[in-house]
Every structure is written in structure tokens, then in C-alpha cells.
Write the C-alpha cells for this entry.
Amino acid sequence: MRFKTLFSVISLFLLLAGAGMAYGPDYKEMIAKNGPVPDAILEPPVDEAVASEKSSLLSSIFGSRSISRSEARAKACYANQRVALGAIEMYNMDNATMYKSLVFSDLADERGMLVTAKYLKSPLRTPEPACHLRSYGDLCDVGIIYCDYHGCLPDDQKGLRTASGYTPKVRAAKAGNSNTMLAVFVILGVLSVGVMIVLNNVLPKAPKS
Ligand SMILES: [Zn+2]
């Protein structure tokens, strides 16, 4: 009886997981249609900046949970990407000629097409000078937007990494982090031994009886 309940719970879970997968974009198809995934999506340059901020000595000691400045700017860029995609979807609903591949000046310039046509209230302001939005794939089909510096939205990145069989370099960054931690402990240990030796020599010794 219990087994039966367990079995139905598991099959319900599998069914839900399957349904969830079915509604997500088909990344394998995206790659088959559009060719190799750009490096800026698989391993965006911002990752290195975030890793080096997180492995700095201070954040090793006080914990790297806090959000770094680079991560905050990356979030602002992802917000821009969502706004851009929304504007393009609206444009494609209104117009017979579809907007398929992104031209960044259409979004970022005062006279950009999507700005003058009122699909954006104001030109997009980039959180970092290196920000430049592009598209991968057909934006009226299964296309996504990404940034040269920040890459694409985390869910899309995860899907495209899996579909292209890419192994992220995150492991290396983590190993570096724990090495820094070890170095801190070693330095503290050496210092405390040194202090003990100094104290031993400086303090007056108890008279021999
Ligand atoms: Zn960006």
C-alpha cells in the first residue's frame, strides 16, 4: 500500500518535470538552427570579474555571500535584456515585417527605431560601458538576447550550456577560493607561533628554585 502511494507520488513528480521541460525553449533545436553558441553566452567575461571579487582576501574571511558590484551590474543588464525582448515582442505583434535580429542602436540611441516608434519609453542605459546587446537566433521564433560582456539570462545560459555539452569553468574559481582560505589559516598559524616565541623571550622568566 505504501509502495503504491510512493510510486504515484514519483510518477506525478516525473510528469510535472516533463511538462516543465516541454514548455521551456528547445535549446538543441536552437543550436541546430543557428550554429555554435557564442562564447559570450557560454562563458561571459563578467564571470571572471565576479570570481576575482569573490575570491579576494576580505570576502574569503567575511564570507562571499554578499552580492558583488559586478553581479549587481549584471542584474541590471539582464533587466535591460528583458525590456528589450518585451519591446521586440510588442513590435512583432503590431507589424507585418518582423524584427528578427537585434541592432543595438535601435534600443540604445535617442533616434533608435524602437525608441522613436514608442516601443521603449527611453533609450536603454547600459550599466557598464562594455555592454552591447546582440541576438542569437531569430527573435520572432526561438531567439534570445545576450550581452557581449554579461551573457544571457541565467536560465537560457544553463540550457544552452547543457545542450552544447559545455563544461563551465566555475570549478576552478571555487578551488581558488578555498586555497585562499587555506593561505589565510596558514598565515594566521605562523603569526601566532611567532607571537608566542616573542612573548616567551620578552617576558621575565620565573626564577629557578
Ligand atoms: Zn551587459
Remarks:
- The two ends are 82 Å apart (CA to CA).
- The first helix runs from residue 2 to 23.
- Residues 24-57+68-171 form one domain.
